[in-house]
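Researcher: I need the complex structure. Ligand is 2-phosphoglycolic acid. Inputs:
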Amino acid sequence: MKKLIAGNWKMNGSLAANESLLHALAEGLADEAASEIAICVPAVYLAQVQSLKKTVARLAPLGVGAQDVSAQLEGAYTGEISARMLLDMGCRYVIVGHSERRQYHAETDVLVAEKTRAALGVGITPIVCVGETLMEREAGYTEEVVKRQLAAVVHANGHCISEIVVAYEPVWAIGTGKTPSPEDAQSVHAVLRAQLKAATDQFSRVRILYGGSMNATNASALLAQPDIDGGLIGGASLKSVDFLKIIAAAQV
Ligand code: PGA
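Model: Output:
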């Protein structure tokens, strides 16, 4: 299984900044990447990214994703974007249940599970984020929290979950420069792997990414862990040099 390195631009970028970032990435991307690479961009820029991919040949292997999707299929949901619309825009991935959405938009485990189903329904790969807060970690609830979050997705999607990507993102590690030790991250990944194994005999298809302050320096050690199948990268995906270093770290 190839590793997946996915950038999460969050609410960053502009037409000009995106264009220069993508040109810089194109310069550094190898022809035969040993891992899969994707960027999840603000929905308003999907068209720009797709058109750059058509004109800049070296961007061809780059998978494109969105950062959220509606749980509804269509209709009177002002401001929402459906999975079918994302498919129309050539999305291969969509992030669901990112902790920033759980926190600032009150997304529940059930809603995240429904969004996962909406994405799977049109053949887009949902990148389902799970992770504990600092308080939960300190209270010793890490396993319980991530298992509860993943269980909701398993419950609503049955063995279709063999088609998802999971991202373990400890909330306290996101954008803070702090990370768990590779061994601590690995132990949570192993818990998630076991949970997937119990849910589907196709569990080996599911990649479990680590996210939260992954950068050019710590990527190799994290990606070397047996159950870390890639990364979901926020801040460092906005700097071409750093993102390319993380991509290179995934090749070995
Ligand atoms: P970060 O974000 O790499 O900036 O910590 C990761 C994420 O939120 O997906």
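Model: Summary of the prediction. The chain has ten helices and eight strands.
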